[in-house]
Known about the structure:
By secondary structure, the protein is mainly alpha-helical. The protein is built from 22 helices and no strands. It has helices at residues 2-13, 33-50, 52-55, 60-80, 84-117, 120-130, 135-149, 155-170, 174-193, 200-207, 220-235, 256-276, 281-301, 313-318, 322-341, 343-354, 357-367, 373-383, 389-401, 411-419, 426-431, 433-451.
Amino acid sequence: MTACIISLIALCLLPLTTVAATLTGAPDLTAHPVGYLALVIFALAYLFVMAEEFVHLRKSKPVIIAAGVIWCLIAYVYAAQGQPQLAQEAVRHNLLEYAELMLFLLVAMTYINALEERRVFDALRSWLIRKGFGFRALFWMTGVLAFFISPIADNLTTALLMCAVVLAVGGDNRRFVMLACINIVVAANAGGAFSPFGDITTLMVWQRGIIDFFGFFKLFVPAVVNFLVPALLMHFAIPNLKPAASSEIVPMQRGARRMIALFLLTIITAVSFHNFLHLPPVLGMLTGLGYLQFFGFYLRMSHQHRADLPFDVFQQVARAEWDTLLFFYGVILCVGGLGQLGYLALASDVIYSQWGATLANITVGLLSAIVDNIPVMFAVLTMNPNMDETQWLLVTLTAGVGGSLLSIGSAAGVALMGQARGAYTFFGHLKWTPAIALGYVASIAVHLWLNG
């Protein structure tokens, strides 16, 4: 969507601009009727994505259709120009991009589902509730846990887990639930920004080899600032009350701790494959899936003599967020199609060559509050502007935390609006957007000061 908006502006302001052909040697089609039609198709598809909560149409459906239609239009033009092989080569390149991302995420989702099935997250939630913390203490504990869990799990799962705790102890205190949910969204997005595993955007940058695994940890301090600034401002608005503690104890199922260890071993395997053997990280993740499969076999074979729940790894694979995975397919193919038409080169020329990298990357973060950060980051990666590590880290930070500015700007925010319906709302979040924006600006300043 970023590419759509900027390209349309650029076409109005610079109608005579000639853009170099794409890397595949394809002709520039930015001023061709097919190019305009592709922009309209993608914009319409993304309007349906943004309206998912209201129309109840799964977000994968419109972008999958849009991807197919856009590439049919591209193939038709290339065939008419006597270059039918260009479309085939370009599609295969984009499919490879998607396959690596999809398989990586599939393994991560399978492990998260397995840990959930072994009741790891339920046990953590019951422990927090039993301690009988006050609202202010719980506000900080859920925020800090969200910040440190999201780099390992994804920010969506982390936000849902912490929100469950808040709803369990918050009860009818809507003010506490609202502020705690805002804090969780900000913390989960900030925590995901300094880890290759914490957010889809960081994962895409890492898999491209632009920043190495440990390079992302340079964003730790800016991410902390992004979380702390609005949290400190919200702290004094939290009711100074202490809800009644619960005595419920939720035990973890057999094998839970060993699955946590296997998940960490899988991450180490993926990092080692990438850093030392120069293999794609997805190969290490799939190897880690093998660890879980063997352990699942052991649990199944030893189950008959025990009173615990059986475990089937393929049930956890089936429970993956397939709508999300297919949405990534549609987005990557759509944005790849716009890049093939020449729009991303045009957008790159406008925002990176004319505006400068710093302003462009800050703008990318602001756009990610309106449009999902996945197509925004994939568009930037496809543009591949000439930037140093500081600027690549900056766009990784802004794309990750910019979505916190609005409740609809990140998957975590959208999910919590559904989970805490009526208590956590768009306008309730909007009221604290100035505080979140202050954290956004402060985190950028700290990054440029430390890493510039």
